[in-house]
Every structure is written in structure tokens, then in C-alpha cells.
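Thread: "does anyone have the structure for this chain?"

Original post by V.I.:
We have the sequence but no experimental structure in hand. Need at least a predicted one for the grant figures.
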Amino acid sequence: MTFDRLDLVSKLYQPSGWPRVLEAAAGQRSSGPLVVDLDPTTFCDLACPECISGKLLNQGRFTPERLAELAEELIEMSVRGVVLIGGGEPLAHRGTRNVLRVLGEAGVAIGVVTNGTMINQNLDELSQYASWVRVSMDAGTSETYGVFRPDRKGRSVFDKVIGNMRLLAGVKKGALGYSFLVMTRRLPDGTMVSNHHEVLQAARLARDIGCDYFETKAMFDDGHHVIQVAEDILKSVDEQLAEAEQWADGSFEIINSSTLTSLRNRVGAVQPKDYHQCKVAELRTLITPSGVYVCSYHRGNSQAKIGDAVTERLPDIWKNSDRGVIDPSRDCLFHCARHRSNLEMDKIATEAVTPEMGGDYDPFL
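Reply from O.Q.:
Generated one for you, C-alpha cells below.
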């Protein structure tokens, strides 16, 4: 079935999640999250200068035993989708393979956001159980990859990652995505370096690898505000994406994130919100070794921490926590991918929309 991977509003209207969507829309505490972002570890084998989680890296991980327990607790809570992400590199944890197997065999949909360096060690589980794997590439050549995504010794492992993606493309059951974050960096001498000129080359490579989609995104700063780019860079990116559309067919898709759309519309770094409760926080949450947080945008924010998954069971955290500790009108002035979902749930609460239910097709709302 063809669907818009980024149409998060439409994903609210799926039968299996609808009861909890109604709870959240009415301002009630939901019986459990539908989707969970899970950071198995904060360790990463790359040293990307622009990493938005750079200040949170290499500060701990779940033990393999606790990680296995978390998988069982997520199943107990009837979570429909789990995204293994970071923080660090999720495939760097030796317990991740077991999590993929346990969740997958329980029918939980699994997404994986990875740098791709360890796909080969996790190939069997990824190919068998992952609904989708998105590899953060941000380049179309080894040279540019080495500038923006070097390993800890400053080397480019581009060829290794591309080889791993080819391996997965040959055996995968789910979707494989090539993610390209448009980046610029000003060097000490004032020179500007960028990866934007490789969008078309990267899209061609993604198609040749056997990826299902190529996604282009804009950069965030440490506060999750979208970083504006020069007009000529944005024009170049758009021209390359337009040319890349020639390869879009039933098996390969060119998609743009909402952050790139915000750049095109020049909406600025701030996204004002006039509501005080994030209803999506009743449907999604983030679990990391340092704590459970209201959402991924607030990873590491002590004010948004609602529990400690190292010492507390997830069902107990959900039962006892206050997901309303964050006020979007005050604390979420950055671009939020689920802003429109919050607005939609306000309409659902007032019966301003008539739901049209289809089947379940993608739990990652």
C-alpha cells in the first residue's frame, strides 16, 4: 500500500490506536503509549561535529538484561511501534538483536534509525523484524561523508556503510531509507563548507543501493530550532530534488521532511503554539538510559523527565507520571513534527472532524 510516511495526522485514524487517540484528544491520561522511542545506549562509534545529541553521548547504556526486560514491558503495555534510536548508535548495544527478535515475534512494529556501521552484525534481525531502517548518511561521496560524519579517528567509513546498506537491501522485508540532512559549517578561517551539492548524487546512490526512499531534512540547532540556509543553497537543493524525481516510481520514493518545507516557506526558527497540553505526549514517549522523557525533543531535559527506566518498570512509570509537565506554548517553541497532530486532536475532541477509518497501515504516528 502506498502512503505518505510523513503524514502523521492521517495516522491518528487507525482502528487499533483509535481508543487511545480518543483518550488523549479528550485530555485524559491514556492507558499507554502507542509508540515508544527507545535509546538502548548513549555510545556512538562516529564523531559527527553537528550531532544534536553530542552533549548527551557516551554517558551510559542499559544492561542487556534490563534492555530485555524493557522489551517485555513494552509488549505488556500494548505498545504498537518501537523506534530504536539515539542518543547513541542503537546497533552498538549487544542486546539490540534480542530486542528486535522479542518485539518482532510479538508483532510490534519496529523502526531503526542508525548510522549504518553495524548493520552487518545485526543483519538477520534487521531483515526479519524491522518495519523500516533509516540510515543517516548526509553525503553522496566518501570525502563529504568524512567531513560531516567522521569516525572517532577522523576517517570516513562511507564505503563500509554503503556496503552494509547493499547487504540489507538484498534481504530486507521492511523499508530501507537513505537520510540526507542538509548541512553547512563555517570554518575558523571563515570558509563555508556544505554537503548540499551532493543531494542528487546521494539520491541516485540510494536508488542504486536498493533503498525504498530518499529523505531530505533541514538542520536543527541545540534547541531544536530549524537552522535557516542561504537562498542559493535552498534553490540548489530544490533543483536537485526536482531532477531526482525522475527515479521515483512504485519502488523508490523521494520524500521531504516538514523541516525542509518550513525552510521553503521561510517560516523562521520559532513555531508558536497556543495550547498548553501536548496531547501527543499521551501517545508517544522516549526511553533512555538517563530517564524516560515526555518526547524525543526533550531528550536530556530534566524538566521533562517522567521516570527512570533503569530502576522502575515502564507500566509503573506510565501509571504514576505526569505527562503534562511540559507546556508547549512555553517549552516547545521549536519546530515540532507533531504540532499538526496536536491541532487535529483538538478537532477530534470537539467533534469538528468526522473520522474515516481504514485499516491499520503504519503505527508510527
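V.I.: this helps a lot. The chain has twelve helices and twelve strands.
O.Q.: and The chain has one domain: 32-270+281-322.
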